[in-house]
From TrEMBL:
InterPro entries, A to Z: Anti_sigma_zinc_sf (IPR041916), Znf_put (IPR027383)
Region (Disordered) location: 127-147
The protein's name in its UniProt record: Putative zinc-finger domain-containing protein
Domain of life: Bacteria
Biological classification of the source: Bacteria, Bacillati, Actinomycetota, Actinomycetes, Pseudonocardiales
Residues spanning the membrane: 91-111
Keywords of this entry: Membrane, Transcription, Transcription regulation, Transmembrane, Transmembrane helix
Coiled coil: none
Domain Putative zinc-finger: 12-39
Amino acid sequence: MSEVSGAPHTDIAAYVLGVLGEEDHARFEAHLLECPECQVELVEMYHLPDILDMVKKSWPDPPVKGPGPRVLRMLLADAAKAGRRRKIIRLATAAAALVLIVGGPLTVLSVTDREPVITQAAPSVVTSVPTSTPPRETGPDGGAAPFGWSEAGNAVAAEVTVQEKEWGSAVELELRGLTGPMTCQLFAYSHGGDAYVVNNWSVPSKGYGVPGSPDPLVVTGSTALQKADIERFEVHKQDGTVLAIVRR
């Protein structure tokens, strides 16, 4: 056991309960700052929440003042320097217990050996989309999800939605700003630059997503590429003119 001024170690419980005389109280505080064993034993005194709860209800006001702010600050500094996480937690708990003693009778402080559990909220994802096209939601079963949109300012606005399949990907294309007549094709490009035809269609004279014909054109198709293997989609006219490019 540790010693205080050459005498046998003073019972830490007497210090915690505030029943030491002023001289013994000050002497023990000075010893506590330099004795890691006493600091740990002080923490272990608070592993009895039920007993301390009974003391809280019946114990009179402490006859002497609680530990001063200098002691509290130095204990917290020692705790911050501890190498192991468990020791940091235990010393910080001891400091918190000393604060409770200053305020009056003992209060309940429940300490367990379990590591603290940190609950982390899932991050929010915000996607910027054109005002003319509301975003599609991903179904609970991992259904179709937006792949991307064409750059703002293009005459033709395109949005691509992809749903992964065992055999590849199911693709849905929504187009606005098309005027006909013309024939178009949708291509999926791999990261290596290979092009895969997804679908082709014709556009009548009235067009789609234009004045007088505001509804968009929606076509579906498929590709052998998995979603992760697709670098971009391109909409071409039959003569090879690129109308829209959709990237992630």
